[in-house]
C-alpha cells in the first residue's frame, strides 16, 4: 500500500520529491507543445510534461505524476477540478500535511514528550507551524 502514496505538493516542495509520484493541485496558465505551464498553490510555476491523452478542460486541475526536477512533473493522470478553487486553502493543506508527515515520521521514538525538533523544523523552514501538545508514539 505504501507504494501508492502520492503526497500533495506545491512548487516549493517539488525538490523534496524528485523521482517520486506526487499530486499537484494547480491552475492552468498556458500550453506549449507537449507541456503545460501551471501555477501551483503557492504561486510558483511548474512545467507539466503532458500525456498524449491528457484532458485538461478546466482551469483548475490536480496533476498526478512523477517529479522530474524541482520545476517539472511528468504527468501520469489528471483530474479536472472546475473553474473556481481557493488556492490559499489548498496551499494551507499542502503545508499542514507536510509538517504532520514530518511529525509522524520523526517523533515515534519519543514517549510522551514535546516535539521540539518538529517545531524547530517547521519554524526554520518557514512552513505552517502547528501548535503541538504531547505526542503519543505509534504502536509497533
From TrEMBL:
GO terms for biological process: base-excision repair; DNA replication; double-strand break repair via homologous recombination; mismatch repair; nucleotide-excision repair. Signal peptide: none annotated. GO terms for molecular function: damaged DNA binding; single-stranded DNA binding. Its main location: nucleus. Keywords: Nucleus. Belongs to the replication factor A protein 3 family. This is Replication factor A protein 3. It comes from Sparassis crispa.
Amino acid at each position: 500500500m505504501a507504494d501508492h502514496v502520492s503526497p500533495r505538493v506545491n512548487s516549493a516542495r517539488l525538490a523534496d520529491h524528485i523521482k517520486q509520484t506526487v499530486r499537484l493541485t494547480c491552475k492552468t496558465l498556458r500550453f506549449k507543445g507537449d507541456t503545460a505551464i501551471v501555477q501551483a498553490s503557492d504561486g510558483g510555476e511548474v512545467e507539466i510534461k503532458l500525456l498524449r491523452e491528457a484532458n485538461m478542460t478546466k482551469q483548475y486541475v490536480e496533476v498526478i505524476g512523477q517529479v522530474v526536477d524541482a520545476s517539472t512533473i511528468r504527468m501520469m493522470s489528471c483530474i479536472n477540478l472546475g473553474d473556481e478553487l481557493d488556492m490559499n486553502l489548498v496551499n494551507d493543506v499542502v503545508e499542514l500535511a507536510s509538517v504532520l508527515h514530518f511529525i509522524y515520521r520523526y517523533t515515534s521514538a519519543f514517549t510522551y514528550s514535546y516535539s521540539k525538533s518538529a517545531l524547530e523544523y517547521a519554524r526554520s523552514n518557514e512552513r505552517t507551524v502547528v501548535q503541538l501538545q504531547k505526542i503519543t508514539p505509534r504502536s509497533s
